[in-house]
Amino acid sequence: MTPADASGSAANRWSDLDRPPLNALALRRGLLRPGGLWSSVDVVARTGSTNSDLVASAAAGKAAEGAVLVAEEQSAGRGRLDRVWTAPPRSGLFFSVLLTPGPDVPVERWGWLPLLAGVATATALSRAAGVDTALKWPNDLLVTVGGAERKTGGILAERSGDGVVVGIGLNVSLRAEELPVPTAGSLALAGATTVDRDPLLRAVLRSLEEWYTEWRRAGGDPRASRLQEAYAAGCATLGRTVRAELPGGKDLVGEAVAVDGDGRLVLATGAGVQQPVGAGDIVHLRPALSEE
User: Fold this and answer.
1) How far, in Å, are 35, 129, 137, 152 from residue 284 at the CA level?
2) Fewest CB atoms within 10 A around its CB: which of 87, 115, 249, 283?
3) CA-CA distance, 134 to 151, in Å (whole number)?
4) Contact status, residue 134 vs residue 142, Cβ threshold 8 Å
5) How many helices (H) and strands (E) does the chain have?
6) What is the pLDDT of residues 47-96, one digit of tens each?
7) Burial environment of residue 134 by CB neighbours within 10 A (0 to 12, 13 to 18, 19 or more)
8) Is 236 exposed, middle or buried (0-12, 13-18, 19+ CB in 10 A)?
C-alpha cells in the first residue's frame, strides 16, 4: 500500500470529527532529525498489518533502520499467538518500527526488544496521557478502568533479516460499546488527559528512541541499560500467582518472582522450584501481594 498523507476521500477522512486523521508531514517534521533514530515516517489509511508490510519492505531492502509505518486502520492486525487485533478507524495507534541492533548487540539479547518497547510505551503514556500503564509479561499494556485491569495495548516483535520489526497497538479513544472483548480497555476509559493521537505517537516514539539508544549503547545488557530494573518496576505480573500456558498444551502454576537476564519470567512453583518461562501465555490468578 502506498503511504498516503491525504489518503481516502474527505468524507472518509473526517467522518468522525472526534478522531481526526494523523498528519504525516507534521509527524516527520517533529520526529526526523539528523543523527536521530527515526529515518522515515509513513501513514497509510488502511492496511492488513503494519508488521507484515514493514517485514516485507525490510526483506526487499526498501526500509532502513528507524522506518516507522503507521496505519489509521488495520484489517488484519496481529497480536501474540496469532490473535487478531481490531479497532475502529483512527481510534488507536497502530504502528511498526524497524530496528537493527547488530553488530552492537548480540543476537541472543534481541529478545529484550519487545520488553523494551513495553517500558518505553508505558513511560510515554504516563507522561503524555497521565495514565498509569502497567506491563503484563511479556508484552501487554494494562490500564485501570472502573477499578479493574484492562488490556489497552500489545506488542509484537518479528525478525526480518538483519533486523527486528516491533509492532505496537494501542486503544486510545475506544468507547465502552466499541471494545472487542470485556477485558479490553482504552486510554479514554482510563481517564487519559488527552486522546490526541499525534502527541501520543510522538511521545511513544521519542521514549522508544531513548530506551533503545541506551540499551544499544550498553551492548544490549539489560542491567547496565537499566532496562531489566525498569521492566520489573512496572510489571504487574510480578508478585502474583499466575498460570503459564506453555507451548505444547502444558500449564505451569506458580508465583511470578522475577524477570531474569534473558527476559524470561521466573515462577516459584509449589514444588519449591524456580522455573523460567521464555514463551507462553500468562494468566493472572490473583492480585499482587502489595495490592492485597
Assistant:
1) 42, 26, 10, 16
2) 249
3) 9
4) yes
5) 6, 14
6) 999 999 999 999 999 999 999 999 999 987 555 545 566 789 999 999 99
7) middle
8) buried
More confident residue, 42 or 271: 42
Residue 196 grid cell: 490526541
Which residues 6+ apart lie within 8 Å of 163 measured at CB?
Answer: 58, 65, 98, 99, 100, 101
- The pLDDT assigned to 78 comes to 55
pLDDT at residue 254, rounded to an integer: 96
For residue 51, the Cα-to-chain-centroid distance in whole angstroms is: 12
Class of domain 240-284: mainly beta
Cell of 225: 541499560
155/166 Cα distance (integer angstroms): 7
Gap between the Cα atoms of 204 and 260, Å rounded: 25
Give pLDDT tens digits for 218-262. 999 999 999 999 999 999 999 999 999 998 889 999 999 999 999
Positive or negative, the Cα torsion across 94, 193, 236, 212?
positive
Band of pLDDT at residue 200, cut at 50, 70 and 90: very high
Q: Which helix (H) or strand (E) holds 203?
A: helix 197-217
Measured from the Cβ of residue 107, the count of other Cβ atoms closer than 10 Å reads 13
* Residue that has been written with the C-alpha cell 519492505 in this structure: 57
What architecture is domain 24-234?
2-Layer Sandwich (3.30)
Collapsing DSSP to helix, strand or coil, 71 comes out as strand
| Cell 492488513 -> residue | 48
The C-alpha atoms of residue 231 and residue 261 are separated, in whole angstroms, by: 11
Classify residue 107 by its DSSP letter. Answer: G
Residue-range domain boundaries for the chain: 24-234, 240-284
